[in-house]
């Protein structure tokens, strides 16, 4: 756990990260261009009211010729100002819709892309990575950049245009006062960069903690996790484990919230104090007679300067958000850059449409994380299973039986030798064509929290109810389903926990039969069942294997005594092969295993 946590904490370095983030918006460039136009128009309009304020003072309220207020001119100016406010509000609503659409579309596309990438990864990736960590990348990291994706374009562009327009207007009104207003800006920019670096480090640690919390939740609140905790009376331990990480998360969230607050407080104080300073400097300029400054100019100048506060802080906040989210984007792109260890080769062809003979030619397999000098899981394994044969693999735990079942559909890649199906090396055919002709029933049946019908249709989405019933009759489960109040619309519960082990297994067999594969792989399909359930399931399996090339990974030898050929594995090698009677007569490993189980045939 500590090693995974340390690994997860390191924000990866992604080349051209900025360009890749920008590339996410390319498919939505038309809407982005329209948004930019609206932002520029809205920002430009926002600067006009302060200039109109000057006219309202100098022309309408206090004419420079000393006359009485010009109500006609004042009414015209006020009318223009109200019209500008209405136009700006309408543009703001339109702009918000566009930015929300683009931002959430980009975020959704990024989430789909990441999910698709994870679906393409090889099986070993998921065996060595916590499910919670993977979920955190998909949910927490993508969610963490949502604000940046949604608001960055409009915020940066709108606030930047507003700031530039305001500065131009301020220069037009009085360049001396503008210098006074901006004299400390370089210091604020330098401080902003330092704060951004701190927030980026905190963001990385925060996402690490979120990943760990997600992992704890996934482990402890799954049905299996809850059963384990209750079985050992360790609920308090799980609560404390979650509480400890939650305390870490609270501390990091507070640190993240507080990082930069002194900086923004300083910016707020600085920008809020400038009007008072401007009044002082204006008074000095007027007293000295060096500059002719009207009351309207001073009011308009301070009004514009006050309008700088929120846009300027907005630009700085976005800059900080971009620095903070850089680590999150890097973590996302790190997963998007993963290369599946098992993928179709260039020019891969469909599996030949001939009877599927299975052949292993001097196959060696070693897991990627195994030591170079360790004993391989499979070492020089060779055998042939003819079309329609029932072949069984038996042996002690850890002998390599399940590995063989993973190599046939190419869920794992051989380290040496060849795996041949239908006369073709599995590395030279497309994975889709290979897996489409193979059905697998494993020891651990996985059912979705859905109806029985929905679980069955996972194999064939367009299957009719009649087809479901046919498959279930073949799997010896139709009568049981028919007795349920909701029949095929019965919810099976999380991982099928509302059903018994035998019922789940027979539904899994029916699901495979609905696929109608030519090759059937049974990976200890009855080892977790009681004797009565095993017999019922075995009947279903016997029916399912007829006419199919079958590979059975067996723990209980009673299930494979009628196999056409039995291969006995020990320490990664095939040490015996033959029929049940031949192997008993040989008096070797198989005969010893058979005697230990006290099997009665």
TrEMBL record:
Residue span, ABC transmembrane type-1 domain: 33-324
Membrane association type: Multi-pass membrane protein
Location of this chain's protein in the cell: Cell membrane
Keywords assigned by UniProt, alphabetized: ATP-binding, Membrane, Nucleotide-binding, Transmembrane, Transmembrane helix
Source superkingdom: Bacteria
Signal peptide: none
GO molecular function per UniProt: ATP binding
Alphabetized PROSITE patterns for the sequence: ABC_TM1F, ABC_TRANSPORTER_1, ABC_TRANSPORTER_2
Residues passing through the membrane, by range: 32-53, 74-97, 163-191, 262-287
The ABC transporter domain, residue ranges: 358-596
Primary location class: membrane
PANTHER family membership: ATP-BINDING CASSETTE SUB-FAMILY B MEMBER 10, MITOCHONDRIAL (PTHR43394:SF1), ATP-DEPENDENT PERMEASE MDL1, MITOCHONDRIAL (PTHR43394)
Protein name (record): ATP-binding cassette, subfamily B
Species for this entry: Plantibacter elymi
Upper lineage: Bacteria, Bacillati, Actinomycetota, Actinomycetes, Micrococcales
